[in-house]
Amino acid sequence: xxxxxxxxxxxxxxxxxxxxxxxxxxxxxxxxxxxxxxxxxxxxxxxxxxxxxxxxxxxxxxxxxxxxxxxxxxxxxxxxxxxxxxxxxxxxxxxxxxxxxxxxxxxxxxxxxxxxxxxxxxxxxxxxxxxxxxxxxxxxxxxxxxxxxxxxxxxxxxxxxxxxxxxxxxxxxxxxxxxxxxxxxxxxxxxxxxxxxxxxxxxxxxxxxxxxxxxxxxxxxxxxxxxxxxxxxxxxxxxxxxxxxxxxxxxxxxxxxxxxxxxxxxxxxxxxxxxxxxxxxxxxxxxxxxxxxxxxxxxxxxxxxxxxxxxxxxxxxxxxxxxxxxxxx
Length: 329
Ligand code: UT7
Known about the structure:
The chain is of the alpha/beta class. The chain folds into two domains: 7-177, Thiolase/Chalcone synthase (Peroxisomal Thiolase, Chain A, domain 1, 3-Layer(aba) Sandwich), CATH 3.40.47; 181-328, Peroxisomal Thiolase, Chain A, domain 1 (3-Layer(aba) Sandwich), CATH 3.40.47.10. It is built from twelve helices and 13 strands. The protein has helices at residues 23-27, 34-41, 55-70, 94-102, 118-131, 155-158, 173-176, 209-213, 223-245, 260-270, 281-284, 291-301; strands at 7-15, 19-22, 45-48, 79-83, 108-112, 138-145, 163-172, 180-188, 196-197, 220-221, 250-253, 310-317, 321-328. The strands form four sheets. Strands 1-7-6-4-5 form a five-stranded mixed β-sheet, with helices on both faces. It has a four-stranded mixed β-sheet with strand order 8-13-12-11, with helices on both faces. A two-stranded antiparallel ribbon has the order 2-3. Strand 12 (310-317) and strand 13 (321-328) form a beta hairpin. Helix 9 runs parallel beside helix 10. It is globular, with a radius of gyration of 19 Å. The model has no long low-confidence stretch (mean pLDDT 97). Residues 32, 36-37, 40-41, 116, 155-156, 159-160, 196, 221, 223-224, 226-227, 258-259, 286, 317 line the site of oxa(dethia)-CoA.
């Protein structure tokens, strides 16, 4: 069998829309308070896409930054993968629009729908395609405009989520010269459609006057179930990495930015101090598939990625689908 090609992270980028929606703004829209939101979630504000922006427009800015960082032209890309649950439309894939707007003339592409775990899963798909020698240069973007599927009369959901995009360019480790992708995990537990979902608009509940009247095109969530699930799998995923590599090898944990309390509870279960984890949830809320790549880029800018040490990226969400990505910086 031919030997596997080591994969590296050549470049990464992030983009968030300019408009800020603060807790104080939300106080005027729904029955909530800054105090409740900060205490229960750690979120202070989130970004909201402008009315003329679509998911591919957010993805485009993050992707251009990632390509510039990688010193790679769009024509060099072989594959574009867009992880999203709020694509420009159900089909064609948002990746097709993104590839066109980028000028990725040679690239093939597709979307990957795994909600908050989308970026972590898509990165592992990209890694496999490069390791096998099938493709050389792959762009993975996590991009969401969740504000378009939120019901701003439902305080259980509308305070938690925001819009944004993060992008990574993967290539051979030899060319990238940094960030070796060591692998990860992809897990799921079906039958949880009611826990966290956009119920209508697919084959189960096609769009109709009644689905619109019943607000079935908005996100629905049973928050407490998601909370318990997220703490459990976050701790499990990181513990597996500790068992294999040892605690000292972990430089930083860059988790899905789900809720500050979930992150704190999982870190407490692991017996690890909060200075081992990177969070930016106070500024962006939960941006689903975009949250890990945005946080990864910001952790880098903050000097939190330590040379030679592991970066652990656990993610978890609707499905229930969860997994992690492991990088040696
Ligand atoms: O990527 C995965 C996406 N999902 C998530 O991130 C959600 C994970 N879950 C959570 O983050 C938490 O469960 C929440 C933040 C959603 C809720 O926190 P909680 O501590 O689990 O609160 P709760 O659901 O037990 O609700 C407590 C109370 C309820 O009132 P009653 O029934 O006790 O009178 C809610 O109606 O808080 C009420 N509540 C609110 N009050 C003010 C719920 N949302 C709000 C709100 N403002 N925005």
